Amino acid sequence: MRVGFLGLGQIGGSIARALRVTGDDWWVGAWTPSGAGPREALAAGVIDGAFVDARALIAESDVLVLAAPPVACVALVERLGGEWRGALRTGATVTDVASTKQALEAAARRADLPWVGGHPMAGRETSGFGAADATLFHGRPWVVTSALGGGNPAVVRALALACGAVPVEIDAAAHDGLVAAISHLPLLTSVALVEAVTGSPGAAPEDWAAASALAAGGWRDTTRLARGDTAMGAEIAVTNAGPIAARLRAYRGAIDTWIALLETPGGPDAAVIRERMDAAKARLEHPGG
Amino acid sequence: MRVGFLGLGQIGGSIARALRVTGDDWWVGAWTPSGAGPREALAAGVIDGAFVDARALIAESDVLVLAAPPVACVALVERLGGEWRGALRTGATVTDVASTKQALEAAARRADLPWVGGHPMAGRETSGFGAADATLFHGRPWVVTSALGGGNPAVVRALALACGAVPVEIDAAAHDGLVAAISHLPLLTSVALVEAVTGSPGAAPEDWAAASALAAGGWRDTTRLARGDTAMGAEIAVTNAGPIAARLRAYRGAIDTWIALLETPGGPDAAVIRERMDAAKARLEHPGG
């Protein structure tokens, strides 16, 4: 199968590396606006062709993988529906690896593309082709959304399986609600935690330097997402704003009950607090129970 | 110096192990209500005496280290001021390793003990003497609070230095405000995150099982503190409720601004969101700047 990457950062690069090591007969080409990632990948023997002309790559590919942040993917979809449409092969499928699916699916529908959205559920705080790792998706879920306009889901499942991932069919709306919960809400709670402790823009940090000197592993872990790729974070937030806002409102409700509990007249009850913490821990550790 | 531990879990045990490997002339004894930790430590050659009678240990010790959760430490302070007072040696100092300092200092003042509070800023989600590690405090701050009733701060600093830690003098109120920010607020935001996503007690989890199947590293890191020792978490919350509630209110303010931003009429602006995320990341990574 001939796979063309439009975008080749950590995620796209990891897929390309995984395809190279499967030993199967994959042809892989890549194009990015700057061309840096594809040149590096070609020099490393990871891809078969680094294209300076996206149309030439599109014309060579059975499956096109949009491997860019969500808003950039929407722009790629619009170009595929417009200036690049003539280069699309008959029977080709366009897929992507972006963190949000509804905005992109809507764009693919408007552009009338042969579309099957995808989201491999892995990634690290690093970015760029240099951070690509052939084993990144081993054993991880790879969400495959509904086919549109003649897109072939079997092609996307084959790509996931070649990377050692587990294809999971979930429609775009359900996907966006679920990742709002376990990925985007944690990102914003992490950023808000940093803002509350280090001061907001314009507000003096006051005791942040002193607090920072005492910070240990708990602080590092709960703020790790706030150290990640902010351009990506912003594109995720704008393309999944509704579901994230709904989760944030539920979250604020939980925070409110904690404030009320701590401010109980006469002082909070350790047994009540422990019971709540125990209940949360049990649900966290036993999602099915 | 003769050191007596009242309590011997992960933190007390790690101090005992560190004292054993320094090669200096430390005598170490320990008592706990069940006696299990001291028996294990004695068998491992980590301590010189496992005491079944706390009074006998107190009578042997130049420095007493209360190594239990905060509320349990308050009870130990009260016993030292009452039934155990007669056993305290002249010139002895009582210290502790608990996560909150004001409630304990107030109890020590009421009990008229020779007191210098302490808080080594390290720890893991594991607990018990079996999780003790001689290197746990290497290079970590060890908060030393003001002396009361003739307690000797030099003794507590010596203990910290013997463990490879860095003694830092901070008064109890300032300590509790700082750790509310970088330790206790992250704990409660982690628990609230679990509650918001997995459902509150009495509310059906709905899509939690499906969301859980997609969860990756970001979810694991931001919820790690909610998997910790809930008895310890509850004792921290009740002994530092005021400062934690104040931090939670500031945090809720940050969450409210995120909800407003995501619900901007016409859709949120990616540039504005990225700017906020960049500003938070910069303050996080450069606490002095």
What does this protein structure show overall?
Two copies of one chain form a homodimer. Chain A contains twelve helices and eight strands. In chain A, the strands form two sheets. Chain A has a five-stranded parallel sheet with strand order 3-2-1-4-5, with helices on both faces. In chain A, strands 6-7-8 form a three-stranded mixed sheet. The two termini of chain A are 42 Å apart. The radius of gyration of chain A is 22 Å and the shape is elongated. In chain A, helix 4 runs parallel beside helix 5 and helix 7 (172-198) crosses helix 11 (241-262). Chain A has helices at 10-22, 36-43, 54-60, 70-81, 102-111, 153-162, 172-198, 208-214, 217-222, 230-239, 241-262, 270-285; strands at residues 2-6, 27-31, 49-50, 63-66, 93-96, 115-120, 141-148, 166-169. Chain A is an alpha/beta fold. At the A-B interface, helix 7, helix 8, helix 9, helix 10 and helix 11 of A face helix 7, helix 8, helix 9, helix 10 and helix 11 of B.
Helix and strand topology:
The structure is a homodimer of 289-residue chains.
Chain A: E1 2-6, H1 10-22, E2 27-31, H2 36-43, E3 49-50, H3 54-60, E4 63-66, H4 70-81, E5 93-96, H5 102-111, E6 115-120, E7 141-148, H6 153-162, E8 166-169, H7 172-198, H8 208-214, H9 217-222, H10 230-239, H11 241-262, H12 270-285
Parallel strand pairs in A: 1-2, 1-4, 2-3, 4-5, 7-8
Antiparallel strand pairs in A: 6-7
